[in-house]
Structures are given as C-alpha cells and as structure tokens.
Specification:
116 residues, single chain, 0% helix, mainly beta, four-stranded antiparallel β-sheet
Length: 116
C-alpha cells in the first residue's frame, strides 16, 4: 500500500508561482513511476508531468512545458511540481500519482486556482 498526500495548492494571480508537494508513505518509491495529473469536473484527468522516481528524462505536457518542473527528494520519498507563469487555464484540482507493481495510487488532490 502507498499513501500519497498533496499540499501546496491555493489561489494565485496569473503570472505567479506555486510549488506542489506530494509526500509518499507505505513503501519506497525507488524504481517506480510517479506523476502529477490535473482534472476539472467532467473532463478527463490529464497528465502534466511524470517520471521514474529514480530519475531520467521526465514527461512534461506541451501545455505546461517551459513553465512546470517536476523534481524529487529521494530521502523524503517526496516529489514536487514547481509551477511558474501560471495561467487561468491552469486552474484545476491537481493529483499526485504513483504506479507501483502495476497498481495506481492517488492522493486526495489539491486545488489550484489562478485568477486573471
């Protein structure tokens, strides 16, 4: 079992920044995939960033490329999503995901609201 807890969401003006945190517990994430997704009610969940927890070239969605950066702290079993130059269309609930042994685990989500 893996438990994921997100934090760091909030209300920010367009052009501002937020840094989301996802702390994992239950087992080490080394060697497994983790990512950040976002979803608006009624729409499909979109992957904005993903990578092996051990590192490598990350996947970054075109819609956020150059603005969002995914990083990790192996010692803390934690990943981050640094979001710069935020736009109103980035408003969403952001979810942390871990894929371990073929099973997906999700956090509870954190709301990001960008005002124009």
């Amino acid at each position: 079992q893996v438990q994921l807890v997100e934090s760091g969401g909030g209300l920010v003006q367009a052009g501002g920044s937020l840094n989301l945190t996802c702390a994992a517990s239950g087992r080490t994430l080394s060697g497994n995939f983790m990512g950040w997704f976002r979803q608006t009610s009624g729409k499909e969940r979109e992957c904005v960033a993903a990578n092996r927890f051990s590192g490598g070239k990350p996947f970054i969605a075109d819609s956020v490329k150059g603005r969002f950066t995914m990083s990790r702290d192996s010692a803390k079993n934690t990943i981050y999503l640094l979001m710069n130059e935020l736009k109103p269309e980035d408003t969403d609930v952001y979810y942390c995901n871990a894929r371990v042994a073929g099973q997906d685990y999700w956090g509870q989500g954190t709301q990001v609201t960008v005002s124009s």
